[in-house]
Amino acid sequence: MKVNKWTLGLAAVGLVSLPSLSQAEEKPSPVLTALSSTTISGYVSTSMEWNPGTGNAFVPGFGFNAGKQDGFNLDVVKLTIERPLDEGQWSAGYKVDLLFGPDANALATASAPFGKADSDLAIKNAYVDVRAPVGNGLDLKLGVWDTIIGYETFDSGSNPNYTRSYGYSIEPTTHTGLLASYQVSSVLSLAAGIANTFGPTINGRANPPKAESAKTYMGSIALTAPDSFGFAKGATLYGCFINGFNTGAQSAAGAGGATQLSWYVGATIPTPVTGLKLGACYDYARQSSVGAPTPAGAAHQEAAAAYLSFQATEKLSLHSRAEYFWQSGTLAFNGAGVVPGTSSSTSSSPTGITSAKVIALTETVQYDLWKNVLSRLEVRWDHAADDRKAYGGTFDTVNGAAPGKKNAVLVAANLIYKF
Q: What is the rounded distance in angstroms from the CA atom of residue 403 to the CA atom of residue 392?
């Protein structure tokens, strides 16, 4: 029995059935065999946001916030196609994360020329994963993969809060390169990687202005408390660094690109109270401008955050976050290539914040009423802790007002359906 390749492809993903095919052929189709261990998953994230008062053009500069004030939003749609590694010594797999919607633009992975990347499409992960029988097993990822740095992730539903922290906003997002990870023991794991650049642009290069061989280097170490630690078993301590050329960074003088060094340390700690967990992290990012000289010559941004999460019932959980962000100079730290001061941009960089110091408090209530649906209500307060007014204002080009507030309040509702 002959079946055209399009019908066979639909049958492989379960869209059509071929009862006679299974009777006529004793051997399974190579297509069906290849897909047997592949999984398809993802989510749809939506939100509603209200900023009390009038004149809310310039909003706090944390990730994925701009353009969402006072309205209803589609955040992002994610589709994951994956074949994870199995337990074999020569295991192989792959993963592809595809993003659709406004937040896809903010990820800034598009390899198209600058100014043509706002397509509402992005590739978050696309790599081949293999394991070599070295010791306990050496795992290698080649392609595009998530950065190894940070307490929070791009996937809001995997974070304690809906909005991202300032720390997340000054971290890189993805890299194109080779990442090796090794589980030394149940207590210790290590990772090391080499990438084209610090920034997220797929297949980007540091040349020019760097040498053709210039690359970005990174490494991490993770410690996990064993069972002998009592209530603190499972506590984690994680540290990492990334150093390389950020092609997307743009200095105040307009020079494209900067050499960037980022350090991170974070910890999660269970407590004797059932359902109560603590977390803390610190981010440091420093850039040295390349090209035309800048007044500052170099700039740094730092962020510290503390987290408190309590699982009150099976469906109800409470999450708090306190942050302190400070900076010297303004550069586009996440590699999205955004000119400083444009807080209306869709970039996840906080360079739109002109204040040297910011304090932020976030309170989130999560109550999961529906199956597969994550539902949250969140209140956030951002405060310019220096003598500058960083929030408010209007976009009117004729009668527009500059930022005139030291405080910004956000009330948000978030629904995420996971499949």
A: 5
Q: Are strands 236-250 and 407-418 parallel, antiparallel or unpaired?
A: unpaired
- For the chain, the structural domain boundaries read 1-36, 44-418
Q: Assign residue 390 a region: left if phi > 0, alpha if psi is -120 to 50, beta otherwise?
A: alpha
Q: Tell which residue, 257, 189, 249, has the closest CA to residue 219.
A: 189
Copy the structure tokens of residue 206. 């540091």
Does the domain at 44-418 match CATH 2.40.160.10? Answer given as yes
Q: How far apart (Å, rounded) are the C-alpha atoms in residues 401 and 409?
A: 19
Backbone conformation region of residue 334, classed left if phi is above 0, alpha if psi is from -120 to 50, else beta: alpha
- pTM (2 decimals)? 0.83
pLDDT tens digits for range 272-296? 999 999 999 999 998 875 443 433 4
Question: Which H or E run contains 267?
Answer: strand 256-270
Q: How wide is the angle at C-alpha 68 spanned by C-alphas 67 and 69, nearest 5°?
A: 100
- Tokens 């399009």 found at: 6
3-state helix, strand, coil in the chain (%, to 5): 10, 45, 45
CA 179 to chain CA centroid, Å, is 17
DSSP 58: B
Chain centroid to Cα 380, Å, comes to 20
Distance of alpha carbon 364 from alpha carbon 347, whole angstroms: 24
